[in-house]
Amino acid sequence: MVQDILNSSAGNQNRSTAAKSCLDMVHYSDYRINLVGGALSRREMKDARAWMSGALVYQYDCWSGLKYVNDTSQVVKTMTFFNSSLIGGSSNALAMLVNYYLYGEKTGSWVPVRTERDGFWEPVSGSSNSGSGGGVPPGLKADVTVCKGGGGCDYDTVQKAVNAAPSGSGKRFVIRIRTGVYDETVLVPLEKMNVVFLGDGMGKTVITGSKNAGQPGMSTYRSATVGVIGDGFMASGVTFENTAGPETHQAVAFRSDSDRSIIENCEFLGNQDTLYAHSMRQYYKSCRIQGNVDFIFGNSAAVFQDCHILIAPRQQNPEKGEKNAVTAHGRIDPGQSTGFVFHNCVINGTEAYVALYRSNPKVHSNFLGRPWKAYSRTVFVSCNLEAIVTLDGWMPWDGEFALNTLYYGEYKNVGAGSPTSKRVRWSSQIPADHVATYSVRNFIQGDSWIHAI
């Protein structure tokens, strides 16, 4: 069906772009569903749930992309098929995985999936500590090196080095990226697994671009300066940047669909939609993430540990004020094991933004998040919420949308923006007995794949 749309899209760039993106998403969905078929043990059930959650992300994104070009009967027919068959079937399969994990073969106990918002908490193990002692393994030896200009190195661009990585390999392929500004768009495709970017440090090794959703035929997904799909990706000591100004709206610096990915000591610079944590399980440690509108967004299961989250001024008349949301999580189904967890992070502004805020605090409002999709889930645990965070805490998306189904939780935060007495009624305080739900071990199964956890 999607191929038929693509074949009939001559002269219609928007429809052709949507169809190509949709074909990619179908391919990724098939890949994840095939992984689910091999997961049988109880421990692997968490993996199966993560992979099926990802498959549902891709199917929904395919449908969502087509809805903006639903100008032919073929598009309408394809959207109907996705909505009624693929998405509905995947949602049912995910619900069965959840129930099987909880109740085994006692099918009489199976019920529609419940969430924290319903007062339901899955049994977990371990302590309430959400953190991890692990990260990118130390002492990795470079397989290839990249230098600006190429002198004395194997490659002069990051993409050439990625292309040299073996396909489908279970062995790490380490790319050492020397100091320099690399103005290029980089894609780590599905078949390039276990690729590692080792830079010389934030602000030294910089991968930069300026693609944005305001350009003809460009989507938010494809605007990423660096996009990673292959599983097992790692990065350390790199700045990922998108220099498109806020007038261009969505402009992604880094996008990830890499399951079991680890990003440590990296920097993400942009404005709207800086970091697209699109799908699967991701771990960010000691990173610096900067932007303004929904600048950490997606439908992944991502943990942010010891990170600095910084709001930057909008370049268009910033002194007039604005409303910024740090996060926009996009969980579309209660069965998805996705959400954003922030542990021991600092939420503040850049030096320039803090100066603006102090000059007129009443016109500058900043929120921890807003619900991009119906089952949006975001929690802040033991974080320092500075004064720029409004005491409401959380921002609605559109009227009452998602306010009864989202889960926005907080636990033992500190700072001038942390008092909870004025929080919106639809946010929650995480019960002490259940904060372990959001540990690296329980939320993203990090004990099985993060080095020295």
Automatic annotation (TrEMBL):
Superkingdom of origin: Eukaryota
Pectinesterase catalytic domain residues: 143-447
Keyword Acetylation: no
Pathway: Glycan metabolism; pectin degradation; 2-dehydro-3-deoxy-D-gluconate from pectin: step 1/5
GO biological process, one term: cell wall modification
InterPro entries hit by this protein: Invertase/methylesterase_inhib (IPR035513), Pectin_lyas_fold (IPR012334), Pectin_lyase_fold/virulence (IPR011050), Pectinesterase_cat (IPR000070), Pectinesterase_inhib_dom (IPR006501)
Alphabetical list of PANTHER family matching this protein: PECTINESTERASE
Subcellular location: Secreted, Cell wall
GO MF, one annotated term: pectinesterase activity
Family from the record: In the N-terminal section; belongs to the PMEI family.
Reactions catalysed: [(1->4)-alpha-D-galacturonosyl methyl ester](n) + n H2O = [(1->4)-alpha-D-galacturonosyl](n) + n methanol + n H(+)
Keywords: Aspartyl esterase, Cell wall, Cell wall biogenesis/degradation, Hydrolase, Secreted
Stated name of the protein: Plant invertase/pectin methylesterase inhibitor superfamily
Taxonomic lineage: Eukaryota, Viridiplantae, Streptophyta, Embryophyta, Tracheophyta
Domain Pectinesterase inhibitor as annotated: residue spans: 2-96
